[in-house]
Amino acid sequence: MSNDSEIRKGRHCVFDMHVHLVFVTKYRHKVFTDQHLRALERIFHDVCDDFGCRLEEFNGETDHVHLLVNLTPTTQVSKLVNSLKGVSSRYMRRDYPELAKHYWRAQRLWSGSYYAGTAGGAPLATLRKYIEHQNRPD
C-alpha cells in the first residue's frame, strides 16, 4: 500500500486524489464471508489497475464494502464505480454459485446506489482560508 502523503505524477500534472466508496448488497442481504471479501478485494484491485488507479484500502462486512481508491485526474468516478460493481457481480456469481439465492429478481449483487466521498488533504475550512488570503495582483 502507498504512503498517505504520496503525490503521483502524470504527464502534465501532479496529483493526490482519493475517493472513499461504499457499496451495499441488494436488499441489504447479509451475503459475504471472509472468503468472499478476499475475492472481492482481488477483483477490485484488478479493476482499479485497469483504470490506472490504486486500491489503497479495502474492508467490508456481510452486507457492504468500503474502498479507498487513489484516483487519476482523468478517472470518472461513476465509470469506475460501474465497472467495480459490474465486474465484481459477474465474477462473484461465476465463482460462488451459493450466492445465486441473493441474485433473485434483478440478477444483481449490489444495490443500485453507492456512497462516494473525497478523502485526504486539508479540511475544506483550511483550503478556503488559504485561498481567501492569497495576494491579488494590483
Structural notes for this entry:
- GO terms for molecular function: DNA binding; transposase activity.
- The chain is of the alpha+beta class and 138 residues long.
- The chain has one domain: Transposase IS200-like (Alpha-Beta Plaits, 2-Layer Sandwich), CATH 3.30.70.1290.
- It is built from 3 helices and 6 strands, in the order βββαββαβα.
- It has a 4-stranded antiparallel sheet with strand order 4-5-3-6, with helices on one face. It has a two-stranded antiparallel sheet with strand order 1-2.
- Helix 1 packs across helix 2.
What portion of residues belong to β-strands?
Answer: 25-35%
User: What is the residue-mean pLDDT, rounded to a whole number?
Assistant: 89
What do we call the CATH homologous superfamily?
A: Transposase IS200-like
- Please give the count of helices: 3
Please identify the structural class as seen in this structure. alpha+beta
Helical percentage: 25-40%
Give me the CATH architecture, please: 2-Layer Sandwich
- By CATH, the topology is Alpha-Beta Plaits
GO biological process, one term: DNA transposition
GO molecular function: DNA binding; transposase activity
Protein name: Transposase
Domain Transposase IS200-like: 14-134
